[in-house]
Design brief:
The protein is 29% helix and 30% strand. It is α+β, with helices and mostly antiparallel strands and 222 residues long. The chain has an eight-stranded antiparallel beta barrel.
Length: 222
């Protein structure tokens, strides 16, 4: 089972968005890319133009994939991991981060173009339902509704399977929705299909704990 670590991060207060993104990609990216066994490493940078509309809960998300959960856990304590963690102190505010390890379920397998944007919506399950019930409802009931949103190029459900370092996952999963560009996303969000999807979310998600932000992918390892 291929697994993907989703690591939602925020910049240190003294850094601008531009400074944070430049350091993350050009300085930290090559350091983290040395971690053994990583099959794919993508940085999802929150779009600078979205900061004027609302304050995003996260400045971005690092996504690293391994062939299995065992492969991911095996790198704990390796010098490459230690080096990456030490470098994080230069640009990440560790008081505002979230980790969770997921298994991907691709609902729409498209090919986003170079200008594509990716909305990430991190979910916690609704109180009173189990992890299994959450995942089942999401896959069997909600996903078919979300697939009907026009303009959606790619749609992935990343369902949590583990936390990091023995802790519980900070989220139970993340929806990843790709659109050709920001204008297409905004148009889609105003349509009836997206409104129907939003209306169904409270049936399985704790709506007070959703963290949604709009990003653009910057691949480091593909």
């Amino acid at each position: 089972m291929t697994v993907k670590l989703i690591y939602c991060i925020n910049r240190k207060p003294e850094l601008s968005v531009a400074e944070f993104q430049e350091y993350w990609f050009n300085t930290h990216g090559p350091i983290a890319a040395r971690i053994p066994g990583v099959r794919r490493y993508v940085q999802c940078h929150t779009l600078p133009e979205t900061y004027g509309e609302a304050n995003p809960l996260f400045d971005g998300a690092a996504q690293l994939s391994w062939d299995s959960l065992e492969d991911m856990q095996a790198v704990s304590g390796r010098p490459e991991v230690t080096a990456a963690l030490e470098d994080e102190r230069a640009f990440i505010d560790h008081s505002r981060v979230a980790y969770f390890v997921t298994e991907e379920h691709v609902e729409i397998e498209g090919r986003p173009g170079a200008g594509a944007v990716k909305m990430i919506a991190c979910f916690k399950r609704k109180p009173g339902i189990s992890k299994e019930e959450f995942a089942q409802y999401w896959g069997e009931t909600h996903a078919p509704i979300a697939r009907g949103i026009p303009g959606l190029v790619k749609y992935v459900r990343a369902v949590s399977v583990a936390g990091v370092g023995g802790r519980e996952p900070d989220y139970d999963g993340a929806a990843e929705l790709y659109y050709p560009d920001l204008a297409s996303l905004r148009t889609a969000m105003g349509g009836g299909e997206a409104q129907a999807s939003s209306a169904d979310v409270p049936n399985f998600v704790d709506t007070g704990a959703i963290a949604a932000f709009i990003t653009r992918e910057r691949p480091v390892i593909e």
